Amino acid sequence: MQWLAFIIIAVLGVLLQTTVSPRVAVFGVRPDWVLVLVVFFALHVRGREAIAAAWMLGLLADFQSIERFGLLSLVYALAAGSVYLIRDYLFRRHPLTHLVLTFVAGVAVQLLVLGYYAFLVNEGRVAGADLWLAVLVSLYSALWAPPTHWVLLKMSSWLGLEVPKYTHAGLAGMSR
Length: 176
Description:
176 residues; 7 helices; mainly alpha
């Protein structure tokens, strides 16, 4: 992976998260574009690089949020590690893969953050509205994943990414 290109994409992603995300909110639900980037890089870069990239994206998100510092770095790195572990069993370039993985990773990230605050702040209680909001944020973020991944895949050579060819399954035409 080209780290300079990653830094540019990461800074742009966090800037979009802080400036554009409130403007595209639907009924107060904002997409988590940083999560979309985490899933993208977990699908297309090597293991340590995927976790390092997710951690750095989380660090940037930590700087712009009011969450406990380091929390987003940790949960995004865990999400990237999980996606990385199963990516060899998936069609990494398929939009449905992007949608489903982003939704599942989003729910996991949201539940980890909610769990953290439930046990350290709210004495073990989580409101049903918080759970519903976690699902809605994850779903809205997942809807943004296919077009975002499509644009980033078009820049894969500039980013220095691994792009699967699927030749072992007789599906070489899917890599185009």
